Amino acid sequence: MTYVEWVFESYFHMSRRRARMLMLQVHNEGRAVVSRGAREQMEADAQAMQSYGLWATIEEAE
User: In the chain, which ranges are continuous DSSP H helix?
Assistant: First the structure.
């Protein structure tokens, strides 16, 4: 869990508090939105998360 926090902090430049909140959301609900934007950026973010060993998907916003 601390590793996921660290990834969110280092890659997305999140505050420790925000990273912890999102990590807990992933832990409790199985998913969290950690990035939004253009498709190309989302693909890069998902690929980066996978390179850290985390599972990431891209979904179109509702």
Answer: 2-12, 16-29, 39-51
What are the C-alpha distances in Å from 45 to residues 29, 34, 59, 60?
20, 9, 12, 14
Residue with tokens 């832990």: 27
Distance CA 57, CA 59 (A): 7
What length does the chain have? 62
pTM: 0.87
- Locate 60 and state its tokens: 């179109």
Please write the tens of the pLDDT for every residue from 21-39.
999 999 999 999 999 999 9
